[in-house]
Amino acid sequence: MKKIINSNYFYAFISLCCALWLFFFVSTPGVGSTRDSNQSNTSTVTKKATINAPLQLQADVDKYYITGYPEKVKITIEGPAALVTATKNTQNFNLYLNLRDLSIGQHRVQIKESGLNSELTYSIKPKYVTVNIQKRETKKFTVDVDYNKESLATGYETGTVDVSPQEVTVTGAASEIEKINRVVVKPILPKGIKSTFDQEVLVQALDKNGKTVNVTLDPQTVHVKIPITIQSKQVSINLKQKGNSSGNGYTLESDVKNVRVFGTKDQIDDIDSSIDVPVDLSNVTESTKKTVNLGDALGSKVSFTDPTSISVTISKTNSNTLANTTGNQTSSTSSSDSDSDDSSSSDSSSTNSTNDNNDSE
Q1: Beta bridge partners of 163
Q2: In whole angstroms, what is the distance from residue 153 CA to residue 228 CA?
Q3: Of the listed ranges 149-163, 176-190, 336-350, the one predicted with least confidence
Q4: pLDDT for 228-284, tens place per residue?
Q5: Strand pairing partners for 198?
Q6: Residue 347 in domain
Q7: 29-33, 144-148, 320-324, 356-360 — which is least confidently predicted?
Q8: Cys bridge to 294: 9, 73, 146, 305, which one at CB 3.0-4.6 A?
Q9: Which residues contact 71 (CB under 8 A, 6 or more apart)?
Q10: Can you name the residues that pair with 108 across neighbouring β-strands?
């Protein structure tokens, strides 16, 4: 055994075995080659992604007004995962319509791309679009204001409407500009509004039939301010009897002497410094108190009052008092008549005396 171990053949055999083991170790994938294998697999994995990309125009947009194309289109790209991810994040490519050599009118045009890596495949949706090319025109229009006055609370009125800016610039195809009948804002006032309306409102270009015209407005909104107010006046009240069917006499009194009335300018202008308030005595048979609703009593003369109602004391007139008053007045009249007769007698005596003296002479 010692001879075999110490012989040169033994060492040669061991060397051969080691060489064969090293050869198979290097040739077979193992732990040392895992990283390289992963990198290789990653570079060969494919990926697909869909991007919403803006659509650009290659045309003389200062001379022509172009419609019919979408602002964005979908492009689906496919290729190496890393490249697809980078392209989706950066979007370093363009989708465009080449309209430079096209005349006025409608055209069906293919959407094209530039800037995509050659290793990527792609598809665009839609592939074609129909565009309308027209001569471009720009014009200024004054903004009208159209709102529903019935939304105002009763008695309230609007003042001078303020629009800022008062003019807008309208750009579009010359044929569309010719269709414009007016440019208007339509503020929506809340029902029963009592205070000033102050908001930004969308501007619309309308034709003679009230339909929207396909143009571009600059600015697209304007500031609208509509003053909403109500007129008022402080007046005294005159209590007036109404519907007294009993034939009795009554006096009317109230602690409230003055009220403030509210209404439109025309309503307030028609009212003097005082206003008659009728008090219904149809069912009154004795002294009492009654609450009178001023709104019902005044009717359409005003919109409302402050206070809205008053308390009226209704006092039945005493008949004895009336009789005594009448008797005193009669007695006074008789006394006056007697004094008048005495005065006449005196005047007569004086006259007779004068006549006697004249005879004596």
Answers
A1: 224
A2: 10
A3: 336-350
A4: 999 999 999 999 888 876 667 888 999 999 999 999 999 999 999 999 999 988 888
A5: 225
A6: no
A7: 356-360
A8: 305
A9: 54, 55
A10: 130
Q: What is the DSSP string of 116-156?
A: --TT-EEEEESSEEEEEEEEEEEEEEEEEE---GGGBPTT-
Q: Decide if 361 is inside a domain.
A: no
In a domain, 251, yes or no: yes
Q: Indicate if the pLDDT at residue 348 is higher than 50.
A: no
What residues pair up with 162 in beta bridges, in sequence order? 225
93 Cβ neighbours under 8 A, 6+ residues apart = 53, 87, 113, 114, 115, 116
The DSSP code for 77 is E
User: Sheet holding 304-306: strands in order across?
Assistant: 274-280, 231-242, 258-263, 304-306
Q: Are residues 214 and 258 in the same domain?
A: no
First-to-final CA distance of the chain: 218
Question: Which residues have C-beta within 8 Å of that of residue 15, sequence separation ≥ 6?
Answer: none
CA 187 to chain CA mean position, Å: 5
CATH number at residue 180: 2.170.120.40
Same domain, 220 and 161: yes
| 13 within domain boundaries | no
pTM over 0.70: no
Long-range contacts of 100-108 (CB under 8 A, 24+ apart): 100/58, 100/59, 100/60, 102/59, 102/133, 103/133, 104/64, 104/133, 104/134, 104/135, 105/132, 105/133, 106/68, 106/130, 106/131, 106/132, 106/133, 107/131, 107/133
Domain boundary among 193, 212, 229: 229
For residue 313, the tally of other CB atoms under 10 A from its CB is 15
Q: What is the rounded average pLDDT of the residues 42-65?
A: 89
CATH code (residue 111): 2.170.120.30
CA distance 32 to 38: 12
Overall domain count for the chain: 3
The predicted structure's pLDDT at residue 93: 95
**Domain-terminating residue out of 229, 246, 268:** 229
DSSP letters spanning 279-291: EE-TT--SSEEEE
Same-domain check for residues 170 and 180: yes
Domain range enclosing 279: 231-317
Question: Does 190 share its domain with 203?
Answer: yes
Examine the domain organization and report whether 243 and 222 are in the same domain: no
